[in-house]
Amino acid sequence: MTDTVSRPAIGTTPQYDPRLTNEDLAPLKKQTWGSYNIFAFWMSDVHSVGGYVTAGSLFMLGLSSWQVLLALLVGIGIVNVFCNLVAKPSQVTGVPYPVICRASFGVLGANVPAIIRGLIAVAWYGIQTYLASAALNVVLLKLFPALMPYADVQQYGFLGLPLLGWASFTLLWFVQAAVFWTGMETIRRFIDFCGPAVYVVMFVLTGYLIYRAGWGAIDLSLGEVRHTGLASIPVMLGAIALVVSYFSGPMLNFGDFSRYGRSFAAVKRGNVLGLPVNFLVFSVLVVVTTSLTLPVFGELITDPVETVARVDSTFAIVLGALTFSVATIGINIVANFISPAFDFSNVSPQKISWRAGGMIAAVGSVLITPWNLYNSPEVIHYTLEVLGAFIGPLFGVLIADYYLVRKQKVVVDDLFTMSPDGRYHYRKGYNPKAIAATVAGAVVAVAPVLVPVLAPAAQYTWFIGMIVGLAVYTLASKR
Questions:
Q1: Inter-residue contact 107 to 429 (CB < 8 Å)
Q2: 226 vs 159: CA distance, rounded Å
Q3: Are 223 and 294 in contact (CB under 8 A)?
Q4: CA-CA distance, 282 to 262, in Å (whole number)?
Q5: Burial class of residue 7, CB neighbours in 10 A (0-12, 13-18, 19+)
Q6: Which of 14-23, 80-89, 170-179, 386-395 is modeled with the greatest confidence?
Q7: In this predicted model, what pLDDT tens digit does every residue of 200-245 receive, in sequence order?
Q8: How far is residue 73's CA from residue 60's CA, in Å, rounded to a whole number?
Q9: pLDDT of 5 higher than 80
Q10: Of 14, 12, 1, nearest to 422 (Cα)?
Q11: By Cβ atoms counted within 10 A, which residue in 16, 83, 263, 309 is the most buried?
Q12: CA neighbor of 116 nearest in space, from 18, 258, 19, 252
């Protein structure tokens, strides 16, 4: 079934309800992003400290290297397929994620997924800014050792963060806000640079470690192989789930970016390059560099910034740490700044512009003191995993509505009308079926997180929530 999209004719100005639109949420007049821009988006998303640690952790599960690579390819292949599914409705209509959600949740009900996704992004935005500031601290302490006392939270600390940490966090907070404030075109150029820059540093770092340790020291299995035969299958499935879960946030609101794609074919090409190809290459570089830290530095180091900090050259340390800081800023902007900007703007388009929505998220990221959140595994476990349990159902409802219920037919003008005759008005602007499906999926998905006896299923919460949300919504809609 091909997509059918009813859009206003070129040159016309449809009378969209001001309660539902502003220039940021309205359908794009020009869609200019090519395959490289989408490719660079995924590079920025993967090439960060978090991406490095996630990729490295896959090789520490006690599997053989070929099993890890197979699980990695299957997981990223699933992500690629799902991203294409999410990309299409926004690319063909030219509207961001919260607006396309109006087709399933209702013109007002779309605020439910928007706020949920926005809150998750705010938490991760603060955490990623904190991680980037930690990388910057490595540079500052290497260049100016006298700053060491100011890195001690016991001597100069406030709300759990030392003075130097506050300075680095504040600096990066303003840098990210400045990049964001200049608009999507500047963000596009920024992410076009970030991903490739990390590759340069990674290849140089890999070459340096190979020079120090020799080719024979490379080991693609980080630790002993503990799982073989049938016993390895549950571990491989867990690795696949980990890969999908890592991308679940950006995957849900990928429409915020695919809407800029000049064609769906260009978006698909960018996804193939940025996901299976890029993630595989990056993961191999990660495991090679991580394995070589043992013979070179005498211990296994999984943090790229710490690895760079062990290099003898001050220039190399500064360059490497700054690059990972910039890369983390890149992923933060694309994954955790743009999403809440659209999401919060969708709540009240005339009062909250795209820029204002982003700044709400930025301020919120400070108020939650993300360093305390990150340093408390129990808090982050319950806060983010409970919120994360909603991501799967939201994804399931979006996909079910567009592909299974509406058969890829969207009337764009009806996404922006409060008329009771509009296709997406439902009951006073809300679709009870979509909300019920989301709640049902979230309740089932969060159970393994909160109930100890179900803990083994916790790694599959995204899949559980997605399947339940999709099934409940499809059945309810067809009735």
A1: yes
A2: 42
A3: no
A4: 27
A5: middle
A6: 80-89
A7: 888 888 888 898 888 888 877 766 777 777 788 888 898 898 888 8
A8: 16
A9: no
A10: 14
A11: 83
A12: 252
How far is Cα 326 from Cα 157, in angstroms, rounded to an integer? 25
Which residues does 461 contact at the CB level (< 8 Å), separation at least 6? 245, 385, 388, 389, 392, 445, 446, 448, 449
- How far is it, in rounded angstroms, from Cα 376 to Cα 365? 16
For the segment 53-66, what is each residue's pLDDT rounded down to a tens digit?
777 777 777 778 78
Question: Could you give the residue ranges of the DSSP H alpha helices within 298-348?
Answer: 304-309, 314-336, 338-347
pLDDT band at 3 (very low <50, low <70, confident <90, very high): low
Which DSSP symbol is given to 157?
E
- Cβ neighbour number for residue 280 with a 10 Å cutoff: 15
Question: Residue 346: left if φ>0, alpha if ψ -120 to 50, beta else—which one?
Answer: alpha
Task: Give 301-359 pLDDT, tens digit per residue.
Answer: 877 777 777 777 777 777 777 777 777 777 788 878 888 899 999 999 999 998 899 89
The two tokens of residue 274 are 């940025």
What is the Cα–Cα distance from 246 to 95, expressed in whole angstroms? 25
Whole-angstrom distance, CA of residue 37 vs CA of residue 479: 42
Furthest-apart CA pair in the chain: how many Å?
Answer: 71
d(CA 367, CA 386): 20
Residues ≥6 apart with Cβ < 8 Å to 92: 3, 5, 264, 410
pLDDT mean across residues, the chain: 86
Stated pTM of the model: 0.87
Selection from 400, 382, 398 nearest residue 452 by Cα: 382
The C-alpha atoms of residue 33 and residue 275 are separated, in whole angstroms, by 17
Question: What is the four-CA torsion angle of 79, 67, 283, 122, rounded to 10 degrees?
Answer: 40
- Check residue 12 and give its pLDDT: 39
Query: Cα(52)–Cα(6) distance, rounded to whole angstroms?
Result: 43
Question: Is residue 224 left, alpha or beta, with left meaning phi > 0 and alpha meaning psi from -120 to 50?
Answer: beta
Residues in the chain: 479
In DSSP notation, 124-147 reads HHHHHHHHHHHHHHHHHHHH-GGG
CA distance 278 to 445: 30
Alpha carbon separation from 384 to 50, 52, 370, 449, 463 (Å, rounded): 15, 20, 12, 11, 16
